Amino acid sequence: MNQYKTFPQAYALIIAIAEYEGVNALPSIVTKDACDVASILTAENYCGYEASKVKMLLNSEATLENIKNEIIKIAQKATSDDSVFIYFSGHGYNKSDAANPDCSLIPVDFNKPDGGMLSATELSSLLSNINSERLLFIIDACHSAGVATIKTFTANGTLGFSDKSLEKLSQGRGKVLIASSRDSETSIILPGDKNSLFTKHFLSALKGEAGSSNEDVIRVFDIFSYLEKTVSVEAATRNHPQHPVFKSNLENNFPVALRYGGIIKQVSTGETTINLIRDKKLEDVIAELYPAGPIDQDIWQRAGGDISRLKLNGTGRSQWFSALRTLNQGGGGENITLASLILEIKSDFPNHPSLI
């Protein structure tokens, strides 16, 4: 009999709005996405969240006041070691103002006298009050079925989130923002699918497709690495560009949820049962040995890489996460391989236990 664990040090806020007034309504799949995310989070054989710590705001419940109040409630409870997950599916508003590029989440009552929009600036301030250094905020918005102009606002505005606003929402230690698409793209729902493309693959990640089989948790880098591969590839089969976005100020690859209810599943090959050792372990070792990132001790260049081919933003760990993804996809320089990188690391640290 499986002895599933729980993931008690975690809080979740799930927000989804399909039934808007004054702006294009979104497909009902938007709220189904949210319900499915909540269901997987609280499933004992998957993520193991306590149901009492998962709050949902759907359609008419997702007012400006309610959204702000629920974030404040999490801030009052969560400690630095708690995982916090916030999911928003709905419309965003981009003012398209170069002088003030702030964007906003659009609550259901945005056009009511006692409602309004939740700007990225105000939202960032609310998130900064959450002490958790393990906060993941996912925005699945800009659905292609809902792209339109908000008639009650300036004609210069468009639906969506600017890259700068996404950066703002990831400010603060241990904060991660994942958006379903770039600011120049739209998120799609494929015909016949029961979920939007992004959330379909996010659900698969939570069901254990992401993560290392020798761990009982799913970590934040595991989730994005999985989404980056699956979402863009399936979107491309429909000739539609959709690339998830990752923004962070991250030092630790923190756990987001349990994997398979906290039970480590092994993979059998013939008569031998082995645990798969994935890039996450290597990433942890490299980030420990070269905390300043790929430029530390010129390790990337010494291994044959080209630093100019990398995006060196954020903490050293974030840089390594990005660099190893790039390397896995065949980039990072013509002469670098994973083998050449490991050989150079071994020459620097010949007695490190993880490299022997």
Automatic annotation (TrEMBL):
GO terms for molecular function: cysteine-type endopeptidase activity. Residues 11-254 form the Peptidase C14 caspase domain. It comes from the Bacteria. InterPro entries: Caspase-like_dom_sf, Metacaspase, Pept_C14_caspase. One of its GO terms (cellular component) is cytoplasm. GO terms for biological process: proteolysis. PANTHER family: METACASPASE-1, METACASPASE-4. This is Peptidase C14 caspase domain-containing protein.
